[in-house]
């Protein structure tokens, strides 16, 4: 019979890395606030602010997904350990 080896420490490390990605996502703070004076164009400043707002929204969505995905490796490890325990109790 085949043997599946689950390295829980690796899965845990992966979970931390993926979930931790949520903390580094975000728009550049220098793009927030009024930039019309710097750009000297109201239409360009408005376009930049619209694009920045869209980027912030997308970053928020990705942060939620990264946090949820970070839990997946732990769930996999727990489910595999549970399945292994159930199989160990069966008589072959």
Verbal overview:
This protein is an all-alpha fold and 92 residues long. It has one domain. It contains 3 helices and no strands. The protein has helices spanning 8-24, 36-39, 42-89. Helix 1 runs antiparallel to helix 3 (42-89). Keywords: Signal. Residues 1-21 form the signal peptide.
Low-confidence stretches: none
Shape: rod-shaped
Distance between the termini: 11 Å
Q: Roughly what percent helix?
A: over 70%
| Average pLDDT level | 82
Give the strand tally: 0
Which sequence of SSEs, written as H and E, runs from N to C? Answer: HHH
Briefly note the structural class of the backbone.
mainly alpha
Strand content: under 5%
Total domain units? 1
Biggest sheet overview: none
Instruction: Please compute the radius of gyration using only Cα atoms.
Output: 23 Å
Keywords: Signal
Signal peptide: 1-21
Would you summarize the structure shown here?
75% of the residues lie in helices and 0% in strands. With 92 residues, the protein is mostly helical.
Characteristic terms for this protein:
92 residues, mainly alpha, 3 helices, rod-shaped
Secondary structure topology:
Blueprint: H1 8-24, H2 36-39, H3 42-89
Helix pairs in contact: 1-3
């Amino acid at each position: 019979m085949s043997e599946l080896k689950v390295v829980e420490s690796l899965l845990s490390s992966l979970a931390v890395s993926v979930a931790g990605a949520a903390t580094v996502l975000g728009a550049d703070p220098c793009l927030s606030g009024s930039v019309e004076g710097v750009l000297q164009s109201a239409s360009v400043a408005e376009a930049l602010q619209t694009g920045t707002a869209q980027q912030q929204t997308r970053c928020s969505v990705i942060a939620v997904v990264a946090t949820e995905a970070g839990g997946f490796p732990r769930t996999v490890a727990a489910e595999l350990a549970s399945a292994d325990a159930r199989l160990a109790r069966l008589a072959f």
